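Reply to dn_fold:

You asked what the input looked like. This is it:
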Amino acid sequence: MTSVHTSARTPTRGKPSDAPARPIAWAMLSRALSVPLILGLVCFLPAVIAAQPGSGVRDTAYWLQLVLTCYAGARLATMILSTRRRLLQGVFWMFVYIAMGVAPFAQVVIGQTPTPMVGPRQDLVTAIAMVLVGCAAYDLGALLASRRPLRRRASSARGSGGGKAAVAHPLRLRLLVLLAFAASAFYVLKLGGPAVFFSSRQEINETVAASGVVTEGSNVGSAFVKGFGQVPALLALLFYTRRLATSHRARRTPSTVLVWVALAALNLMVNNPISNARYWFLTVLMAFVFTAFPSSAAFYRTVLATGVVGALVVFPYADRFRYEEGGQRPVQSASVFEPLVTKDYDQMVMFANTISWVDTRGHTYGRQLTGSALFFVPRAVWSGKPEDTGVRVGQWMGLRMTNLSAPLWTEFWVDLGPAGMVGGMALIGYAAARTDRRYALAVTRAGPGSGSVLAIAAPLIAGYTFILLRGPLLQAVGKLAIAALCLVLITTFREQRAARRR
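and this is what came back:
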């Protein structure tokens, strides 16, 4: 009986004889790429920055920043070379490597920062050390998540029917499409027509201010108009993109293709890079790419690898449409690293300024995070509603322009101090790792199919991670809350059958 059983299984195991070829090929390729990739991220780029001329002092801040850059580079290389697609963790380490590692290291070396540092040098040392500790806490949370087995409510994850999974209800998804067109149409008409969406971000902001949806001292009205004008359209496009990417039947259905084309045109209007913030367009782009190519590990690795180059070279110059033609800032860059010290990457120095602010004012003990959670409450109702953390620190610094970043480490520090920051980063690392594992199941053939909510939510959160990490949270949570509301309204839990995925 044993021999019969073994012989019966042998053809089954041997049937997909070419299946291991691709993983083996990638394993060989990853080994070939691992050395130059790790050397490039951990050694070569930091060494090139360290060799730049500048007035920076090689003190404790310099060496701590170098350690943080190399640590983040090693972790990013691990994410790129991993055999699993760790979507949220990969984006986290890409942000840390660029915004908290490479850019601040260039600032320390050259001796120039995008925003003035008002406190003592020791506050910068503390900020760098706390970011490093927060990253270690994030890694610890991710490690704990990897040690805990997933409760596989989807027994269908083994492949044959059964199990409940979160999927988009077909009728409610159609209603989401209608909501997307209606809300976006209201948004377009409120701003005066389609033409303004292809002018500049400055004109968009001026039009919103003149439209009457902004009240004095409160941006809740404009946030809702913009959020509902953009987010449902993006979510509907992502769901239809996944349907076309995973279902042969959907690709042969003219109505599905036509709806996708209409949604794509709608998003080209309301979510284009000309009239939107770069971080939001980056969210749209990453969410769409990871939804359109859900099973491509090579594409995932390519995005992370090329993202570093894009952040260094392309991103600082991508704001040319922020201003009208006469008001564009001239590009004055003699070095590829100059934009890192003169434009967008103020996260580390703002953490140092926030530490100085807290030293003079004290911690807020949950007040700032509460204000972010209750972002939808207008100031007319809550007169003492906290302002953005970046705005409060900028006002304390005496700056006229207070559109400053407040990275997530800063938000935890302001409210909860060092212990709260460590705990908060550990929880985020734990949640990110758990989500990555569930997402990996959702995008496989054993997952819940083309209507999987997690297969849409994870890429969207991954793209939005840049906004959440940069901060301030009060500005960031609005669109995320609208996305969560839309997903909750269209989600249902029901039995999934393999036949439905074909």
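DSSP finds 19 helices and two strands in the chain.
Hope that clears it up.
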